[in-house]
Design a protein that fits this description.
binds protoporphyrin IX containing FE; iron; 142 residues; mainly alpha; heme; single chain
Length: 142
């Protein structure tokens, strides 16, 4: 059973490259995914800084919602590069994160939605990796 998304914007659908997502679709994926993260023996350790899971899930639902072009309804300040660097982000963790995320997309969405979101998540993952490498180099110089 899906839970109702606690914060739903008035305009509650977005379209990315002709593929439509309801706000509730995004919430269902994110809620399910972070429940899986909490059960994962390795990724749960990386996420030990998160104490308020419902708040994290709402914040990340909003992140994807605005990423897909939806109107912001929470603060839009995200600082993923620094946060990931300090959470110990690396290639292996990213592969595991993506594996779990893509499985959740397949379980929750239509083929078209899942395919598109996989591509977008891989692109963000690559960009996080490159920036994380730059941080690593900067910090190791000090
Ligand atoms: C494509 C892959 C990923 C995406 C799109 C993503 C996205 C995000 C975003 C948007 C946030 C919120 C940042 C903020 O509040 O400013 C976040 C937080 C977080 N991510 Fe990721 N993430 C990815 C992979 C990973 C991986 C591999 C790890 C493992 C280290 C990770 C660990 C975390 C943690 C621990 C937080 C919470 C930080 C905190 O608020 O204390 N993420 N992620």
């Amino acid at each position: 059973m899906n839970k109702k998304s606690p914060l739903e914007p008035e305009l509650n659908t977005v379209a990315v490259n002709g593929v439509t997502f309801r706000h509730q679709d995004i919430y269902n994926v994110i809620d399910d995914f972070y429940n899986r993260i909490q059960q994962d023996s390795i990724l749960s350790v990386s996420f030990r800084s998160v104490h308020d899971w419902p708040e994290h899930i709402e914040r990340l639902t909003h992140f994807w919602w605005i990423r897909f072009g939806g109107h912001p309804y929470l603060s839009t300040e995200y600082n993923p590069v620094t946060k990931h660097f300090f959470a110990g982000f690396n290639h292996n963790l990213l592969e595991r994160w993506l594996g779990l995320f893509h499985q959740t997309l397949d379980d929750r969405l239509t083929l078209q939605q899942s395919h598109l979101w996989k591509l977008i998540s891989e692109r963000i993952g690559n960009s996080l990796s490159i920036k994380n490498e730059m941080y690593l180099r900067q910090y190791s110089k000090k």
